[in-house]
Design brief:
Largest sheet: 3 strands, antiparallel
Distance between the termini: 64 Å
Mean pLDDT: 91
Number of helices: 5
Radius of gyration: 16 Å
Low-confidence stretches: none
Helix content: 40-55%
Length: 154
């Protein structure tokens, strides 16, 4: 059973993504920084973000996770610049539905997340796979709020 699990979960595509995560590091002046930790496995993702309007202008991340969490973060980092907060939320929700409900993988910009479909049978891995997308949606929301001028209406 161990070998079957390893083959399903850690495909060459997953391992390739995990081994090559772009945008590793910190941003000098992020509008928001969010750190997410999996209580289940100890995986961590920390994201710095800069938004321009409702779109991601820049992002840097730090990842301490299993290959699945690293692969998810890698897909995010490759495709995130130019994504809207709405696209990030749809990708996060689609990824969760793929894992928990057997729904199709996210489409469009984050379609490469399909390589993680094998993780759906392993609920203990779901939180690690979700961390980067949970962190980026929270960071994007915070950054968008931070750059929106607040108006007082009476």
């Amino acid at each position: 059973i161990e070998g079957v699990m390893a083959d399903e979960l850690y495909s060459n595509a997953v391992l390739r993504l995990a081994a090559d995560i772009p945008r590793i590091g910190r941003l000098e002046r992020p509008q928001a920084s969010v750190r997410k930790v999996s209580r289940l496995c100890g995986s961590e993702v920390e994201i710095d973000i800069v938004m321009r309007g409702d779109r991601v202008a820049d992002l840097a991340l730090r990842v301490k996770a299993c290959a699945l969490g690293q692969a998810s973060a890698s897909v995010l980092a490759r495709q995130v610049v130019g994504a809207s907060l709405k696209e990030l939320e749809v990708a996060r929700d689609s990824l969760l539905a793929m894992l928990k409900q057997g729904k199709p993988a996210p489409r469009g910009r984050f379609g490469e997340l399909a390589v993680l479909e094998g993780a759906r049978a392993y609920p203990a891995r779901h939180q690690s796979v979700m961390l980067a997308f949970e962190a980026v949606t929270e960071a994007a929301r915070q950054a968008a709020t931070a750059q929106t001028p607040t108006s007082l209406t009476g």
